[in-house]
Each structure stands twice: as C-alpha cells, then as structure tokens.
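To: structure desk
From: M.T.
Subject: fold request, one chain
Message: Could you run this one when you get a chance? Sequence is below, nothing fancy, just the single chain.
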Amino acid sequence: MRTPSRTALSTGVVALAAGVGGVAASFASVGLTREFVAQPIARASTDVLPARSIGAFVAEFGLSGQQMNLLLAMTLAVLVFAGLAAFGLAVGHRVGVSALAALITIVSVWTVATALTGNVIASGSPALASGIVVGLSEAAGRDIGDVELSPDRRRVVTGSLSALGLGALGLSFSPRPQIETEPVDAVSNPGGQTGEGTGMSVPELRELATERSLGIGSIEPLLSDYHYIVDINTIDPTVDRDNWTLSVTGEVEGEVELDYEGLQNLPAENRFSTLRCVGDSLNGKKMDTAIWTGVPVSEVLEQAGPDSDCDCVMVRAADDFYQEFPLSALEDGLLAFGMNGQTLPRGHGYPVRLLVPGHWGEINVKWVTEIEVLEREAEGYWEKRGWHGTGPVNTVAKLWDGGDLDGIVHRDDGTIQLAGHAYAGTRGIERVEVSTDGGDTWTDADLTEPLPGNDVWRQWSHTYDPPETQHEVVVRAVDGNGDLQIKEEANAYPNGATGWVRQTVRP
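Reply: Done. Structure tokens follow.
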C-alpha cells in the first residue's frame, strides 16, 4: 500500500528528474547558445547584481566565474522545470489521469522555455523531454501483477534512468560551435603602418618578441602564452562570419555596411597590442599581449564621413554589449579579425572585434556589429554600472610571486633576480624603479627594447645581493610622459587598481 509520504517523495524525485531531463535536452539540441534555457537566467543574474560585485567576480575568477554562474543558472532552470512537472503530476494524480500529468508538463515547460529564450521551436526539446520523463514514470507506476518493486519505486527508477539517459545524450550530441580556423596575416594586404614593424609578417613579429623577451623565472614572454578572457557573457554568441556585417550609422554623410569579405579587402596590418582588464588587481594576471591582424577603424569611418558636433560614437556587439567612445579614441583603433596568426577565437570576439589603444580591456568591444556616430553623448554598458569606462589605463609595474607566474629567482651565485612587466597604455614606459629596502632607496631596472607599436608592455629586470634577513621589494613605473605610477592604493572599482606592488622576499 502506498503511503502519502512515500508518494510525495517519489513525485518529488520524478519531478526533479523531469527538470534534469528538460535542461539536458535543451543542451543536446542547441548546445551553449542563446537558445539554451539556462542562458537567459545566467544573463539576468549578471544584469541584476551590483556592478562592483560583477566586475570583481569576473576579474577574480574570469572564465571559471562565468562557468559558476552558468552552473547556478542550470540548477535554477532544473528547479523551475521540476516545479512545473510537480504541478503536472499533482493535477494528474488528483483527477486520476496519468497522461494529463505529462501533457501539463509539456505545455507548461514549453511556455516557460519560450518565455526565457524567445524561441518556440528550440523550446520544444526541453518540453518534450520533461514530458517523456513524467510519462514514462507514470506508466511504470501503474499497478502490475506480481512485481518486486512497488509502483512508487518503479516511478523513481524509471524517471531517474530516463533523466540520466537524456543527460548522457546532452553531453554526447550537443552541437559545438564551429569556427573556420585558418592562418591570418596582413602581409598579403598591407596597410598604412609606419616605423618599426612595417610590413613584418606574424612569424617575424613572433620571432622579434621571442628575441626581446627576458626569459626570467616563469613570467610570460612579451608575446603572451595565454591571453586572458573576460566579458559579460556566460555563453558567448555564435556568429557566422558569412552572415556577419558591420554597419556605420547615425550622424554620417552616408551609411556604410561591410561584410567579412569586404572588410578583409581593405588595407590591413599586424599589430602588437596589450590589453589589461579594469578589474585586474594591482598585481593580478589579467594583462596580456598578442599580435592582432585587422583593418584600422579610420579606413571604415572615412567611407561613412562622420558629421556630428558630438565627437562621440556608440559601438555595439552581437552579445548586446555597447560602449561609447570619443570619436578621436577610434582614430588609431583596429577592427581585428586575426590573433597571433590565426582566425580570431570565439572567446576573443570572432569574427571581428574592436581594439582601442591605451584603454581598459573592458571596452575593447568583441563581436562588433555597429558603429553609430551620435548626436549627443551617451553612457556605455559599464559606465551605467559605475565603472570608469573609456578613460586611459593606469600605469603599472608588476612583480608576480608564486603560482604559474613568478618573477623572483634565487640564483646559484647567491644573488636574487627580479623580473616582471610594466604597462602604461599609449604613454609607454620610460623606466621601472626597484627598491629592495621597502622604499627607502631606488634603483633603475633594466628594460627590454620596446616592441613595435604604441600600446605594448615592456619587461623589466633587476639583480641584487640580498641581505641575510627577510626584506621587502617595491616596484614602480614611470610612463613616457615622465609621470610616476600612482602610489595610493585603491581597489579596481571604479577606476582601476592603483598602488605600488610590494613583495616580501626571504633569504
């Protein structure tokens, strides 16, 4: 005989299994795209949380933070679908019609999934999957002559197994976004570069970066081994380059629209460029350099003929991100379609992203689709959330200690060698000063020869005879304008972290 508590427990387990099955089926049918039912929930959590928390969370955890947010969103989606299935089961049991439970589950899940994703067709997969789990469980729970398992247990076993099966299906057959990876180099289509680096191919620039790198400790070379990824998304947009276009609209003499082939037909160039996240901590690791291949923004803007007294533009992207710039900030900007000699990766904005020299990485718009010349100033995505936005990056000299980056080396001859990176945007680095006595005295460090470009970091090193006791090392940079790195310590929000990096060194 069934007891109410056992029936309620089995109903809860079946409902939860239906929720898991629905989310798994959604993933199996659309993969990690905007039609995945967890994506709108994850995006909503990003939009409603305080800007300070979002910026700190993304900067601290990067991709892992996005994955944590997605996992939370998937859990919430499972619970929502489970609640709908539980409602269907309750109604079906109340009226004594098992098939009604499956029907109500299908209709309610389909309705909610459509409301979340805006796609009625893609929402059919989670709805049908949840309904199948409920239907199979109800069928298994019917009284059948001499069987070892009770009806409630059969319902639980059937529901759990069907959910596990759908989960395996999701992991095995979910579509993966495909990017047509191919070599990219501007040498075959040179633009208007001047000075060192003009006409150099990506392999030549890569070799130059290797030659000028210090190779001290475990710090990255001048061309980063791995480039950090930070954006507002838990699931990046999937953009087909054959359907991609870039529009220049607004206060212009004539609107312009370019497709991918049209952009690549314009004069292009290879360019070293460093990006630093505005949420990067003082001695954090979200600052890297790559060789970017693309078309100067000026080539595109000149075709449209900006005609506005505002001197400001809004750049929009396929992920609904938007950022306002002074028009002058884009004069040296780059519409990049290549990174380190290959097609731009999806996580870095495939097929085309914007690079604005000397500005925080947060506003270098990925998946760019539109440049609108404005008639009046407006706020960008991060400005609306209280962040500094398009202002120039802060000067910084870093001395990493421990982990996968370590610039403190105890040499066999008893000396200690210090090394790190320094960056000041388009102002450049004039010198790096090192103190080995807590800031009482200072010595100029050795600097690597600058790489071509006006927005590139440099490496520094300093070797000294250490005292026999524990001591504090301090580093600071002076930019190309002769201005000393800000001494006052401040957290990243809202203007970027400031202060001098200090590390304790033991003999």
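Reply (cont.): The chain has three domains: 4-173, 186-385, 396-505. Let me know if you need anything else for the meeting.
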